[in-house]
Amino acid sequence: MRIGLYPGTFDPLTLGHMDIITRAAALVDRLVIGVAINRDKGPLFTLEERVAMIEAETAKLTAHTGVEIVAHPFENLLIDCASDVGAQVIIRGLRAVADFEYEFQMVGMNRALNDRIETVFLMAEARHQAIASKLVKEIARLGGDVTKFVPAGVRAALLEKFG
């Protein structure tokens, strides 16, 4: 069974994330969405809320493709999380050249820690390349329309947070 791990904070889940999840699901038999517990970032949504959003949105994809997709919170090293869930591949989304520099360093470090786990990069679709969770939260906080950037359920959760 090919198992992939797609990690992130998903605060909140965006259409860019869903684009990568959809395409990653075509590459593996089981896709684990690693939901990072990153206290330093001070997420808007709780871990439970982020997991629930991911489960709600990926359930539709699982029903459509038959690929098992699960949300898995983690707080340890990414490479250790990959080992914990049995992943042979870590899937990372890239939006711009700036993402590549950071990801390039991460791959080198992860390979030094465990060279049995590969990293695969998927470029976000052009229409999703500018979407960043940080910007989505700012737009929502200031009363802007985030419909073009997040699934409907996530939009509702943002509206509930910001009123």
Overall description:
- This protein has 163 residues and is of the alpha/beta class.
- The protein is globular, with a radius of gyration of 15 Å.
- The longest helix has 19 residues, at 47-65.
- The chain has helices at 15-25, 47-65, 78-84, 97-113, 133-141, 152-162; strands at residues 3-8, 30-36, 68-74, 89-94, 118-123.
- β1, α1 and β2 (30-36) form a beta-alpha-beta unit.
- The protein has one domain (3-162): Rossmann fold, CATH 3.40.50.620.
- The mean pLDDT is 94.
- A five-stranded parallel sheet has the order 3-2-1-4-5, with helices on both faces.
Reading the helices and strands in chain order gives: EHEHEHEHEHH
Shape: globular
- Mean pLDDT equals 94
CATH topology: Rossmann fold
Summing up helix and strand content along with how strands pair, one would put the structural category as: alpha/beta
CATH architecture: 3-Layer(aba) Sandwich
The parts where pLDDT drops under 50 for at least 5 residues are none
Assembly form of the protein: single chain
Biggest sheet statistics: 5 strands, parallel
Secondary structure topology:
Elements: E1 3-8, H1 15-25, E2 30-36, H2 47-65, E3 68-74, H3 78-84, E4 89-94, H4 97-113, E5 118-123, H5 133-141, H6 152-162
Parallel strand pairs: 1-2, 1-4, 2-3, 4-5
Helix pairs in contact: 1-2
List keywords for this structure.
163 residues; alpha/beta; Rossmann fold
Q: What's a quick, concise take on this entry?
A:
With 163 residues, this protein is an alpha/beta fold. Helix content is 45%, strand content 20%.
